[in-house]
Write a structure and sequence with these properties.
By secondary structure, the protein is α/β, with parallel strands linked by helices. The protein is 36% helix and 17% strand. It folds into four domains: 135 residues, Alpha-Beta Complex (tt1808, chain A); 224 residues, 3-Layer(aba) Sandwich (Rossmann fold), CATH 3.40.50; 206 residues, P-loop containing nucleotide triphosphate hydrolases (Rossmann fold, 3-Layer(aba) Sandwich); 82 residues.
């Protein structure tokens, strides 16, 4: 069999999978089915490899080539057939849908698009889709370029306006397939995305949009936000006008306009392998992928490639790699990534098409988020480990059942800090950390508080979390309600998380990964790290649990002795996690030992170093949350700006001043080098 014949065998198979009936020209019978692909169809410029008919109307053409053929140069040949007069047709009507295909690769062009551009697709479209498109007066890409009205800006932050307009005007309108929205944690990425979804459904005529997450908890949270969304000036909620489905099975509701799904579940649907619900509880940051675990995504007629017009990938920095990428490659959809922590791979995947950037530092200056301080706790055992002597009697505990047995060690066993709380548990070390945290919070960090500020502790494992909880209750001499576990293995973790957000108890929660990413707990004021992390992106996400700003009334509701709005959070580092080079954002506060008066005096004397500038901006932002409205008004009258505005304006003026000085220095050095070379 020739290479061309082998390729056509694969093409025939894919057409049949998509629902096309294949006929040879000599046996053609357009009445035999509504959807027919006719092979070797005569035209006035020669036989076309395939002509696609829907309800007796010719709508498309396929130019077939052997495998390993580069398809871009074939486009002119496809265009020629599409513009030719078909045999038995009275008029020469250009065909709308153009395909170039080998047995492995398919390219598709809709000639009705503005500036028609080919794109690679995973499979052929179902006939019903081509029939629907053919019957529409314009295409999705035409509507994106011409039909999107001006964005109403009521109830939107400046960063959200920038993200939506950037997405629509600078990416989708130009038919760019991938767009990245980089917004700081707490800046309202999901709210921004829902606004964009509303516009895409109502003005661009999108059929269905997939909101892709990587944990079930984030899916639940996204569904709640869709249900709570009400456009400014509208009387009804989003879900009252558009059907929102959170996928908990492998069946997509045909009426659903928004589907919320974990990438793990969608992967299982497309590979044909059932998924255990627990797999949706583990963040992709925590999942290592082995080659032998890889399953190939294959065409699923129940979920064809045209199922979604847009895919919004939440926390996209962890959903676009390795085997998960297959899910994104499967669908013929625009990809829109949301992240607070992109890395080089993220930028690369989205073709460096960043439609909006809003950094953590900007969010603090805008009052969207709060800054943070770092407090370090270091025990000798954490730093250096310890040694178990031979013949020493110790507890041996099963990791899963936690059942203990009392036994002797056979040989001396030296364990490192990294093995602590994984293969070896040292209760004394945990006790020392908790005691140090308690003392620091009560005497240095929040000395005026009567209750423990809402605190989240990151543990290494579920078993480690249990050890921490028991020690917290013991050290604080409190009962069960005071400290609880929020992990996927805990009983009713959603209820505990709700109480942690909204009620007085629990004051302290311990987690492994359930609320390490993407989950809002605004009253949090302390993060205690009792685990290190490999990924700087994951670490940034974990820190993000503390950055949310909160007004005085909302904070006072759960922490009655709070005297002002939330103005910072404190990261207590018990494992050296902050010293690692993986961290991207740093505290704005660089000179914590200097008073505000000294900082201002330094600026007056001409100090323009980065530490002084950032520390002063951070101090002004915090001060704005601590003073009453009368003093705020006096400052605004005197300075012509509010304190946050002064902080932001001063920061950027001094930042530009530093940049100008740096640039000037570089230019002077360049001139000096040129003069030296000339002499």
């Amino acid at each position: 069999m020739s290479p061309e014949a082998k390729a056509r065998q694969e093409i025939d198979k894919k057409l049949e999978q998509a629902g096309w009936q294949i006929q040879d020209w000599k046996d053609v019978n357009l009445g035999a089915a509504l959807e027919i692909a006719v092979r070797e169809h005569p035209t006035d410029t020669g036989p076309a490899d395939y002509i696609l008919y829907v309800s007796r109307i010719a709508v498309g053409v396929i130019e077939a080539k052997k495998d390993q053929t580069i398809l871009t140069p074939v486009e002119e040949q496809t265009q020629r057939y599409a513009s030719s007069k078909l045999k038995w047709h009275k008029e020469k009507i250009p065909l709308a849908f153009l395909f170039e295909a080998t047995g492995q690769v398919i390219h598709f062009t809709d000639i009705r698009d503005p500036s028609p551009r080919s794109r690679e697709v995973f499979h052929f479209f179902k006939p019903e889709m081509l029939q629907q498109w053919y019957g529409q007066p314009d295409t999705l890409r035409h509507r994106l370029a011409n039909n999107m009205p001006e964005l109403p800006v009521a109830n939107l932050r400046a960063c959200q306006i920038s993200a939506i307009t950037g997405l629509e005007q600078h990416s989708l309108a130009k038919n760019l397939p991938r767009s990245l929205i980089h917004m700081a944690t707490g800046a309202g990425k999901t709210f921004t995305a829902i606004n964009a979804v509303y516009r895409l459904l109502n003005y661009a005529g999108a059929k269905r949009i997939l909101f892709l997450v990587d944990t079930r908890n984030l899916g639940k949270q996204a569904q709640q936000e869709f249900h709570a969304f009400k456009l400014a000036g509208k009387e009804t909620f989003f879900h009252e006008n558009h059907i929102v489905q959170r996928l908990t099975s492998n069946t997509i509701d045909s009426a659903a306009e928004v589907c919320i799904c974990t990438i793990q579940r969608m992967y299982s649907i497309l590979t044909g392998h059932e998924i255990d619900e627990s797999a949706e509880d583990i963040s992709l940051f925590e999942t290592r992928q082995l080659q032998k675990q890889t399953k190939q995504v294959r065409y699923n007629p129940a979920v064809p490639i045209e199922s979604f017009d847009f895919i919004i990938v939440d926390e996209c920095h962890r959903s676009i790699y390795n085997l998960w990428k297959q899910v994104l490659d499967y669908f013929d959809a625009f990809l829109i990534g949301l992240t607070a922590t992109p890395d080089k791979r993220t930028y690369g995947f989205f073709n460096e098409n960043v439609v909006a950037e809003y950094s953590y530092e900007e969010s603090v200056l805008d009052g969207v988020n709060v800054g943070y301080d770092v407090y370090e706790i270091e025990t000798e055992i954490t730093k250096a480990g310890a040694e178990l002597k031979a013949k020493e009697w110790v507890d041996h505990r099963d990791k899963l059942t936690r059942k203990k047995r009392w036994d002797q060690t056979e040989e001396e066993n030296v364990y490192t800090g990294k093995e602590l709380d994984r293969s070896v548990v040292n209760p004394s070390q945990i006790r020392q950390v908790i005691k140090a945290m308690k003392l620091a919070v009560e005497t240095k960090i929040f000395p005026s508080r009567k209750e423990v500020p809402k605190t989240l502790i990151f543990a290494k494992t579920d078993s480690h979390a249990d050890d921490i909880i028991q020690m917290v209750r013991e050290v604080y001499a409190e009962g069960n309600a005071f400290c609880k576990k929020v992990t996927y293995n805990a009983k009713d973790p959603d209820a505990v998380l709700t109480d942690f957000r909204n009620e007085y108890n629990p004051r302290i929660a311990v987690t492994v990964n359930m609320i390490a990413t993407g989950t809002d707990v605004k009253p949090l004021e302390i993060l205690l790290f009792m685990r290190d992390v490999r990924s700087k992106g994951y670490y940034e996400q974990m820190k993000g649990r503390g950055v949310r700003s909160l007004g005085y009334e909302e904070l006072h509701r759960v922490s009655q002795s709070a005297s002002n709005a939330k103005d910072r959070f404190v990261l207590i580092d018990a494992v050296g996690v902050e010293k690692s080079l993986k961290t991207e954002s740093r505290p704005l506060e660089r000179n914590s030992n200097l008073s505000l008066k000294d900082l201002l005096q330094g600026v007056a004397l001409g100090h323009r170093d980065n530490d002084t500038v950032q520390s002063l901006a951070n101090r002004l932002i915090r001060l704005s949350k601590q003073i009453d409205k009368k003093i705020q008004h006096k400052i605004e009258q005197s300075a012509g700006q509010t304190l946050p505005q002064l902080a932001k304006t001063g920061y950027f003026i001094l930042y530009r001043w530093q940049s100008d000085i740096s640039l000037s220095g570089q230019q002077n050095q360049t001139l000096s080098n040129q003069n030296s070379a000339g002499s």
